[in-house]
Amino acid sequence: MKKSDIPFNSPFIVGKELDYISQAVFNGQLAGNGIFTRKCQDYLREKYGGTKVLLTTSCTTALEMTALLCDITSEDEVILPSFTFVSTANAFLLRGAKLKFVDIRDDTLNIDESLIEEAISEKTKVLCPVHYAGIGCEMDVISNLAKEHNLLIVEDAAQAMGSTYRTHFLGTIGHFGAYSFHETKNFISGEGGALVINDPRFVERAEVLWEKGTNRVKFFKGEIDKYTWVDIGSSYLPSELIAAFLYAQFEHTEEITKRRMGIWKRYWEGLISLQEKKLIRLPFVPEHCHHNAHMFYILLRNEKERDALLNYLKENNIHAVFHYIPLHSSPMGLKMGYRSGQLPVTESISTRILRLPMFFELNPDDQKKITETIYKYFNSVPA
User: What total of structural domains would you count in the chain?
Assistant: First the structure.
């Protein structure tokens, strides 16, 4: 990438990340569940809620933990959108579950809550809404369906930490929530995630799974004199280096959020006239949702136009990207018996979406270049 290029994403340091990494080394504990791990967990629980929060190596492993906690087997079905990252599906597929993909809404790009009930069967165990672009799914409807059919809710809130649905933070509404701190997210640690447990019934077992299937947490609490293997589990907790970097980011939550909201609003204000001309469509945020400025995307009128604009931006050293290939029409989805054409909204959105550069250090001049280049593209092609 040339120096003049505008990347899609760029990792950043905002505070004491390197200082805290040094502290973790000199504290004499680089393995997980040390001082910085506990600081991060306490911060997340106190700021956003949840009965218990556990840092994980990724959002992927947080989701895998939820599948274990839900006791998913090959007899169970999980309902989820096809328009999501593979981790949402793999977490449950690894436990043998049958995946039932549901189409998304055309406005928010979230799972269409009006289609969920017809997908529920006697084998359904979990509803897994994905809060796309940090905008909340219709959790009132989803929660009512879960209660009516005695189902568990796993919120994939990888993109949604800090966003709210009505008065509730996303990730704290269902039985479980999963956050991501991948370098493309609002708060980063390279890789990393968190499992939010909102139902006290699952806390003790979650701690066991998190500690490789042992009751080591009880040992550290002084509740037992030695720990041993008591359940299945794996190495889900991250090192103190990751936690130290992440905690330094948390100390600047307001600054990071304010900066990202400013970038998001400049995109909106800079591109709104193209939406008024019906050349593109901007993100839709329901009145009862507050988003976290995780991403800014535009929807083109068709795939050909999306690809042409993508290439035009690239020619001008701007690295925008498209997003998910629908899971149901992927090679794995086809093996499960799905086929193209089954989820029309998902398939249409997938071919028309274009994500613009969005990162903490994106400056106004570069952002102006991006919006001006988009206008130049539309001025260069026939209406």
Answer: 2
Do residues 180 and 64 both lie within one domain? Answer: yes
Residue that has been written with the tokens 């005695």 in this structure: 150
Asked if residue 72 belongs to a domain, the reply is yes
Question: To which residue do tokens 């549901």 refer?
Answer: 102
Residues across the chain: 383
> What is the pLDDT of the chain when averaged over all its residues?
97
For every residue of 316-378, DSSP letters joined together read: TTB--B--PPPGGGSHHHHHTT--TTSSHHHHHHHHHEEEPP--TT--HHHHHHHHHHHHHHH
**One-character DSSP codes across 225-266:** SS--B-S---B-SPPHHHHHHHHHHHTTHHHHHHHHHHHHHH
Percent of the chain with pLDDT over 90: 94
**What pLDDT does 353 receive?**
98
- Do 357 and 6 touch, CB atoms closer than 8 A? yes
The pLDDT tens digits for 140-151 are: 999 999 999 999
CA distances from 65 to 55, 69, 243 (A): 11, 6, 19
Domain identity same for 307 and 171: no
Domain enclosing residue 367, as ranges: 253-380
Q: E strand or H helix at 195, and its extent?
A: strand 193-197
- What is the rounded CA–CA span in Å between residue 283 and residue 286? 10
Determine the pLDDT at residue 222.
87
Task: Write phi, then psi, for 130 (nearest 5 degrees).
Answer: -115, 120
Q: Report if pTM > 0.70.
A: yes
At residue 3, the pLDDT reads: 61
Give me the CATH number covering residue 269: 3.90.1150.10
Q: Are residues 215 and 296 in the same domain?
A: no
For residue 59, give the nearest of 233, 180, 172 by alpha carbon: 180
Residue 4 has pLDDT above 80, yes or no: no
Taking the C-alpha atoms of 231, 40, 171 and 153 in order, what is their torsion angle to the nearest 10 degrees? 10
Question: What is the per-residue pLDDT across 105-164, written as a single tens digit (0 to 9) for each?
Answer: 999 999 999 999 999 999 999 999 999 999 999 999 999 999 999 999 999 999 999 999
The candidate with the shortest Cα–Cα distance to 243, out of 32, 59, 88, 2, is 32
